[in-house]
Fold this protein.
Amino acid sequence: MDNIILEMRGITKTFPGVKALDNVSFKVREGEIHALVGENGAGKSTLMKVLSGVYPAGTYEGEIHYGGEARRFSTISDSEDLGIIIIHQELALVPLLSIAENIFLGNEIASNGVIHWPQTFARTQELLKKVGLSESPATLITDIGVGKQQLVEIAKALSKKVRLLILDEPTASLNETDSDALLKLLMEFRTQGMTSIIISHKLNEIRKVADQITILRDGGTVETLDCQTEDVGEDRIIKGMVGRAMEDRYPPREPKIGETLLEVKNWNVFHQHHRDRQFLHDVNFTVRAGEVVGIAGLMGAGRTETAMSIFGKSWGHKITGDVTMRGKPVDVSTIPRAIDAGLAYVTEDRKQLGLVLINNIKENTTLSNLKAVAANGVIDDRKEAKVASDYRSKLRIRSHSIYQETVNLSGGNQQKVVLSKWLFTNPEVLILDEPTRGIDIGAKYEIYTIINQLAAEGKGILMISSEMPELLGTCDRIYVMNEGRIVAELSKAEASQESIMRAIMRSGEKH
Amino acid sequence: MVADTSTQNNKPSIGDYLKNNIREYGLLVALVVIMLFFQFVTNGVLFKPVNITNLVLQNSFIVIMALGMLLIIVAGHIDLSVGSIVAFIGAISAIMLVKWGLPAFVVIPACLVVGGIMGAAQGYWVAYQKIPSFIVTLAGMLVFRGLTYVVLGGRPIGPFPKEFQLLSTGFVPDFLYFLNPAPEMIQNLVALVAVVALVAYAIYAGIRDRRINEQHGTENEPFIFFAIQMAVIAVVALFIGFQLATYRGLPNVLIAMAVLIALYTFITTRSTIGRRIYAMGGNVKATKLSGINTERLTFYTFVNMGVLAALAGMIITARLNSATPKAGQGFELDVIAACFIGGASASGGVGKIIGAVIGAFIMGVMNNGMSIMGIGIDYQQLIKGLVLLAAVFFDVYNKNKG
């Protein structure tokens, strides 16, 4: 059993000004699933890039032993030739090519540059069967969901005769069903003797599949836990990651709930692209002052669509229904009007929809409310700088200065900049869509603290999240959505992972 | 990468500063080097008063259009139609002035309005119908060129009345002539006084801004760079001002150009509209979701381009003293090249007015210098193309290295 397939010894990788990896050691046994965990910036991805040859031999110190020999990879194809395949978080598929074309991209079954299509399709069919995907090889990538795309990536890895499969946050953008399917597949591969390394933030999944867990912190190896010899709980892992026991992942709060702020009634929305398909059906909900309200549901349940259709009709069409603030009807038909009505929407996709990444913190902070730092269309630089500095210190954004480009910030700090932008519009109700997605535990705690402060100031918070523990830990009340409908409303006392899942399942049977 | 968690303001070293701003200094240095090179190889013809005047007149319309084009490119678009707008405006100004006999003070604003409408006609499709600007303005380029032929009936129209010609051939009169200390050398004292005053103001404003920045703890560029930059600009400006003063003084066009450069620099750096255009070019979806009417902003960016192209069209027509169907052909490429040489990014969100202006002058000096040297149009194009490629490569190289 203790056949070591990979050993990385004393790996040190320095970037100008930063030591990303400091004497890291990492050992993987053949045929196991090895989880690599750590906060953002701990060095997980860097370590995998060293392994796969993205950072060629010579640019780092230390040794890599793989399959019993010392290796020096100078390109990715060097490591791929030996069966080390890495699947990155951002999938590397070409959307408008078919599954078959993607799987064999750069590796086509061809003679003299002419592709042999029958063979390509047949091979693809085999590979898809192995990963349990029942799609035609001719289907375009853009027509299948993220979950299936992930499986195509794995099929692509299999086509390259993989021995060591590395998955970087494979389930980050998957719903629970797809995540489960993926994890099951990994476990199946394990029985066939394949070795995998999985990088993930989802500790419950890691507990489910990992044989060993290596924890990185601040560029160094903290420890490797063996799940077969000891029972490794989530708290144990977190303790290793943050360097201290994190008793309470959610800051405490005394809710002081006031009058109803936002009320949405009979909200019906048709699909943005499939124009005759009704997507949201009679959605009704309220958010009160000082209250944190959650919306739970699976991916595709219509949560983001609900939020975006209310926020200036930025999603969907043929939108009908009433929105009131403090009992008075308000016009939310365009984004500027929704902002004027006292709404703010913090998107789930901060890189694409939240930030202008090439602009700095200051410019992003004031973007939604430039008027407030300008007179007659002329920006008052110093006023603007002051606003940005105030939010930077208030939300504890870690950066050189307010002039740092947001593209260079960590996920947590980027999220704080998006929050700053919306807080500066002084909203009454903030809609937070997956506010802690892809950010590390320490930063999550800070975001929860900010949410609590906002609620304490009397703002209403509507929080959409796919992480049920997060909703249970922060919300006063939780709506459950499924298939475009609100299927349950649970008080804090009623809400539990089971009750939420039950509500989803029950509603699924009805339709 | 690990994010830097330090919270204090690190003072960048001079080397860091140079590295981060190499693009802007490099551009200025390139312009000076190119000027000196041609001054040398043309045996001093380049900086002769009459040639400097020519340089300004020949390049003013490229500079003026580059101001609008920079906004278009920063917004994430492109406008291929400006050369055709130039021709069409030339044609209708000729009809109005020469055939109908309308006065210039009516025709000039009317042409600006027509230019705005032509920009709007394209902006509508780009902004509201989401058709890529490359396609819309390619269509516009063909349509407006065709319209020019239709309006002119294929024949040039001219000459133009004197008052209209003043647009491009007029000079600021020497109303200070009675103070002139050396009339045998200085033909036009106003030019010299204006340039000296301008340089003095620039230095004063620069020092004032630095002081205010210091008070507010905002980063300043290292003093040595500030000083060198100011010295270079002052020497070049004073020299050109002096040369102009020994000839006919300041061309009207130079004044118009300077005012527009100042105005657009202000718009891009200080106004909310400018800020929103940059944000939109950087990430249109995030900007829209931040409550900014990105459609309207795009639309007005094209309207603005149309108006500036109309102004340029009138200046060119006045200069040639004839409206021809082929006027302005290929100008769009010079204008776009000026923006890219000046550091604008083809993917939007990045670019500076001063960069586009210097880019336009680099092209202009090269055109002019090579013509004086007697280099044929064939080699001129070839060299210009290589300079464009080299400038953009320099950008990409710097970005990858950083």
Observations:
- The radius of gyration of chain A is 24 Å.
